[in-house]
Amino acid sequence: xxxxxxxxxxxxxxxxxxxxxxxxxxxxxxxxxxxxxxxxxxxxxxxxxxxxxxxxxxxxxxxxxxxxxxxxxxxxxxxxxxxxxxxxxxxxxxxxxxxxxxxxxxxxxxxxxxxxxxxxxxxxxx
Length: 126
Description:
Elements: H1 5-16, H2 20-36, H3 41-58, H4 75-90, H5 96-118, H6 121-124
Helix pairs in contact: 1-2, 1-5, 2-3, 3-5, 4-5
């Protein structure tokens, strides 16, 4: 049974709201669900990316981190990153682990894009 998309989306929303402790609980549920399925390299890469996303948002000193430098109001840049991660996730040139890793990053940016696009214009100008 694959991990429900709603659970993955919930994790990313919690991260974007900086509710890291709750996000870690959701990650535990996702990890449990993924271990019930075939424990393959794709899943390992996907989970490692999720852990990395949480870790970078938990850190207070993440000024050199990709996610801390990401302008969440620049939807054009978010779309470019999303497309690049998605391209890498689908590339047969990458190993399963790498495709899983890039898939998680693409999924994260998909949710970030939806949140950014749904923000009222007044919030975007702040």
